[in-house]
TrEMBL record:
Domain called F5/8 type C: residue spans: 537-672
PROSITE patterns reported for this sequence: FA58C_3
InterPro entries in alphabetical order: FA58C, Galactose-bd-like_sf, Metal_Hydrolase
Descriptive protein name: F5/8 type C domain-containing protein
Pfam name, any one: F5_F8_type_C_2
Coiled-coil regions, chain positions: none
Taxonomic lineage of the native organism: Bacteria, Bacillati, Actinomycetota, Actinomycetes, Catenulisporales
Amino acid sequence: MVTLLLLVLAAVLTPTSSSAAGGTWWDPVARPEPDSQINVTGEPFKGTDSAGRVRGFVDAHNHIMSNEAFGGRLICGKAFSRKGVADALKDCPEHYPDGSLAVFDFITNGGDGRHDPDGWPTFADWPAHDSLTHQQNYYAWIERAWRGGQRVLVNDLVTNGVICSVYFFKDRGCDEMTSIRLQARLTYEMQDHVDAMYGGPGKGWFRIVTDSAQAREVIEQGKLAVVLGVETSEPFGCKMILDIAQCDRDDIDAGLDELYDLGVRSMFLCHKFDNALCGVRFDSGALGTAVNVGQFLSTGTFWRTEPCTGPQHDNPIGLAAAPAAEKHLPAGVEVPSYDADARCNVRGLTGLGEYAVRGMMQRGMMLEIDHMSVKAAGRVLDLFEAASYPGVLSSHSWMDLNWTERVYRLGGFTAQYMNGSEQFVTEAGRTERLRDAYGVGYGFGTDMNGVGGWPAPRGADAPNPVTYPFRSTDGGSVLDRQTTGQRTWDLNTDGAAHYGLVPDWIEDIRRVGGQHVVDDLFRGAESYLTTWGATERHRPAANLARDARATASSAEWNPFTSYAPARAVDGDRNTRWASDWTDPQWLRLDLGATHRVGRVTLDWERAYAGSYRVDVSADGTNWRTVWSTTTGDGGLDTAVFTPVEAREVRVVGLERGTGYGYSLHEVGVHAR
């Protein structure tokens, strides 16, 4: 049996002319024959810059294994196959002979879905920038992106149980966590597949990493650090049916532990559909209608909207028809209409969602706020600010840009969706001032295999087209047009058809927007790892207010429960202090000794302060105001100020935000 296995491996890994005959570390000892070309010459850069920072691009949002999602037949083709490229890059069975049954193809791309199903070796019709159903992440194409300067890739394990259940073709069940486990396992198998070409375990360029130090080590060796994330609609089974959660805290703890053990270090808590954890940021147009239908099929309720309370807003839903999706609705059920001035999802972060957020913080995981409703994202940012927790990500332009500075202030990281170069440059310009102010790099999220669409060709006659061959950003490699089988792609005329064209797209950005935009992207890997490292190192600051002696101007009387001042410092978020229904009112905390104080957190009940201030005193007699606001809106507030020495802290409510009094679940006092 062992002899037979060795013979098979020898046949599969037959050396080719591209093998490392000269001993170059970046070329494999043996590459399968036949296979895709890489079309890059020159040694990939290693090491750090003069300041000790890693260099390179970061793709913060990709889906290498999503062909295994949605029932296994929505995305056709594989990222790798031990049987070779012909087996990996072939169409789904139902697409033969002419694409007549490529149902999802014509739903997403219009027309009749007809196409040449043959992949290897002709690739007449796919992969293409506007084909959402064919593999774009073949391992050799990712290898070309690595050779072109990419050093971090986040592989988001993704699926959607409702899409799986309604799609006509599938070859496995629709349980989301089962699919996530499979995709994680196959990512590790892809690492083994690459390692085998380079001579054994640990020798390949595709390295799955589970902490930021390991990622830095991999990048300094010149290799690609691969981070596992999760983007799914019902994590841990936390769906919602008729507003009733289908999971509990034990499910969340078990799910987070399992994902962490799989190597997952970042995740979304909601995606596309409202679930038991949070509400989502809507999709628009006909796609929005289709997703809203899916929301109903999943939860029994459609999206509900309300006027937004701040500058942030969710995407407009739109009223465009989606007949292919709407026919799945029960008889007599129709997608509702929505007021144009009600742009925000009524659903924010639920109690279970807050528990999950805190669970991620305890495990040092990074949280993606893309796809969260602004109400949910705002609460997450409140929680992170209250804890000074930096682990917040926006990886592919699904966050309202008005949140950007709060993300950077926390130490978080942002990336933009892989738009066409002109649009990418324009959007990058909107936040360039903030990147400069906070000294951070920028990322992109290709969302390849993510059913989103990618940059169309600008045309060979467009101004400043990509000219081949071109040099990588670091200057050490030369890239020519990419060839796989009998097909050669040119970004100018083909657009970003597959992952191997990511370096070409970056070169197009340089030609359209200038070197400074690409320089920001080249600093992206360092900024991503800085956020990750700070997240790992985070430790909760001591709460100096816990069980402090608390007094107040008043306390609301109730025959059934106590609203005494001490309830605001007892560590229980289910209790609270509540004042009389008049202005002004105050809550005073004696910390028991003099401490350095620089941050006060206030978790308001619905009865909040519209105008209030924070005072401190060293002796209980002489007070000074260190922070104040006249625009309080409730929720979780964090008052940050220049640290001072103080024994007592006083919160003074000047003007109530409601007709009730002032009510605080918890007050925290911290040194920083």
